[in-house]
TrEMBL record:
One of its GO terms (cellular component) is plasma membrane. The gene is ccoP. Heme c 1 binds at residues 129, 132-133, 261. This is Cytochrome c oxidase subunit III. Binds 2 heme C groups per subunit. InterPro entries: CcoP_N, CcoP_N_sf, Cyt_c-like_dom, Cyt_c-like_dom_sf, Cyt_c_oxidase_cbb3_su3, Cytochrome_c_Oxidase_Subunit. PANTHER family: CBB3-TYPE CYTOCHROME C OXIDASE SUBUNIT FIXP.
């Protein structure tokens, strides 16, 4: 990379401005030096004296005043118009390049089949997630969420038993629910089959019972009859087990009961990557 690249518009402008400032500085210094040598100071003294040195009541030079007014006008324009709306920034350029790359990425990989999505998701998981969740995704003995049951009936059953915290923000919390394992399994089956967009459960025989328990146990009081939940209070169960649910956690992070998961919003995952990671997690078999 060249350190003196005048082919760049910004570098060229800065170089010309620097030459202009140096030239003007040399001219002003030379002019005032000549005046100090050849002219006698004139004007009215202010009356104050410091060790025999007085002060003239000279007004600000016209050129200085003009420059001062110009800088004020330029500053107002720059702050309120020039910089926020029409400026170049490295961050803006970076975001634009990332958006262009992601668009090309999505075009290239948008027609992946399920096996390819799972393979891509596994690669992402090993790089981005395994440090906390472990390479088997079981959570490393409770240090992080066991993802083998996440997005499945077992994940709902675990939430009913243990409660949940931090999914919708630091203050959001669902307390544990006193419910036997059969009823919890039925509720999980109902949510997966009828409420979630997944529309599939491994336990279809329990769906009817699950709907009854869901309403009688008071699940609908917070999550609603349709399972859409309430903002900041109860999660939207219609997205459970889908890439939308995963995208929410990746964006916001989760300060849960067993620890804090940071937001991965900085990673700029695109929709294909989120679909792939979701497909891999979905492919994992629950471990008791």
């Amino acid at each position: 990379m060249k350190w003196f690249n005048l082919g760049d518009e910004i570098n060229l402008f800065a170089f010309i401005a620097a030459i202009g400032i140096l030239t003007l500085t040399a001219f002003v210094v030379n002019s005032y030096t000549k005046q100090m040598k050849s002219k006698t100071p004139k004007g009215k003294l202010s009356g104050e004296m410091w060790d025999g040195i007085g002060k003239f009541e000279n007004h600000i030079p016209f050129g200085w005043g003009l420059c001062f007014v110009f800088i004020i006008i330029w500053g107002i324009w720059y702050i309120f118009v020039g910089y926020p709306l029409n400026s170049f920034s490295q961050i803006g350029q970076y975001n634009q390049e990332v958006a262009q790359y992601n668009q090309k990425y999505e075009e290239k990989w948008k027609n992946l089949d399920q096996n390819q999505l799972v393979e891509m998701g596994e690669s992402m998981f090993l790089v981005q997630c395994s440090q906390c969740h472990g390479i088997t995704a079981e959570g490393m003995g409770g240090k992080a969420q066991n993802l083998t049951m996440w997005g499945k009936e077992e994940g709902i059953m675990n939430t009913i038993k243990m409660g949940s915290k931090g999914l919708l923000g630091a203050d959001s919390e669902m307390p544990p629910v006193e419910m036997n394992e059969d009823d919890a399994k039925a509720v999980a089956s109902y949510i997966m089959a009828d409420i979630s967009e997944v529309k599939h459960t491994r336990y279809p025989a329990d769906v009817a019972k699950g709907k009854e328990v869901y309403n009688n146990a008071g699940c609908n009081a917070c999550h609603g009859d349709d399972g859409k939940g309430m903002d900041g209070v109860a999660a939207d169960l219609s997205t459970y087990g889908t890439p939308k649910f995963l995208a929410l956690v990746l964006k916001n992070g989760k300060k849960g009961l067993i620890g804090k998961m940071p937001s991965f919003d900085h990673a700029h995952f695109n929709s294909v990557q989120i679909d792939a990671l979701s497909a891999y997690i979905e492919s994992l078999k629950p471990q008791n």
